[in-house]
Design a protein that fits this description.
The protein is an alpha/beta fold. It is built from 6 helices and 10 strands. The protein starts with 8 loop residues before the first helix and ends with a strand.
Length: 224
């Protein structure tokens, strides 16, 4: 990540051309827009950037000086780096409203179970990384991977509840604060209290290709 300089980035981009990668991401220092623009001008494949930028002001500089092409550039701003989901949405709203970027250009960085769940209501894609960012890595338990795509479970919560590895860590660390919570999400109980779903309740995964009125439940799953 961010490994190449002006004298090495073009050669790296040339070497990657034959592999048909989905994109070449974070090729140089995140604020070295000159190097990125120079590579973007001659590299025929998509280039992704934005993971290490934290604000709408920085996103504007990337858009203006980074040389990314709207036809197939990829914007990978990280919701956590951008001070949470509200900050991330401000960046995206500005690029959509005034920058002329298409919706399919946005791929929130991280590849964790929560990122996928956050973005599904908007019907946007998200990467899934099964190897990094433990214990939050990868998709939820029971997700079906088919032709590089993964389904999202139809379950309440923000993504951790259906992910055994993440949920196990939370139970060990915060077990004393979550005695009334069980994996599978919460339902409204009597007298305004949150009652837990039965322990071990199955989480039903939607079949490949399923969709709802809020957008597709299938997300692109590039391995990085």
């Amino acid at each position: 990540m961010n490994s190449y300089r002006a004298d090495t980035a073009p050669a790296a981009a040339d070497a990657l051309c034959e592999y048909g990668l989905w994109w070449f991401e974070d090729l140089c220092d995140p604020l070295d827009f000159d190097t990125q623009a120079a590579v973007a001008a001659c590299h025929p494949h998509p280039i992704a950037a934005g993971e290490a930028l934290f604000s709408d002001a920085e996103a504007h500089l990337l858009d203006r000086h980074g040389g990314l092409r709207r036809a197939h550039g990829v914007l990978v701003f990280d919701p956590v780096h951008c001070y949470g989901l509200p900050g991330h949405l401000r960046i995206l709203d500005a690029r959509l409203a005034t920058g002329g970027w298409p919706r399919h250009a946005f791929w929130p960085h991280g590849g964790t179970c929560s990122r996928c769940t956050w973005w599904q209501p908007w019907g946007w894609g998200a990467e899934v990384n099964p190897l990094a960012f433990a214990p939050f890595r990868g998709a939820a338990d029971g997700s079906c991977v088919d032709a590089g795509m993964a389904t999202l479970p139809q379950a309440p919560g923000i993504g951790f509840e259906g992910h055994g590895e993440a949920w196990g860590v939370m139970q060990r660390v915060f077990g004393g604060y979550s005695a009334g919570i069980r994996r599978g999400g919460l339902r409204q109980g009597g007298q305004g209290k949150a009652a837990a779903a039965p322990a071990g309740a199955p989480i039903r995964a939607l079949p490949p290709g399923s969709s709802s009125d809020k957008g597709p439940h299938r997300i692109n799953m590039p391995y990085r």
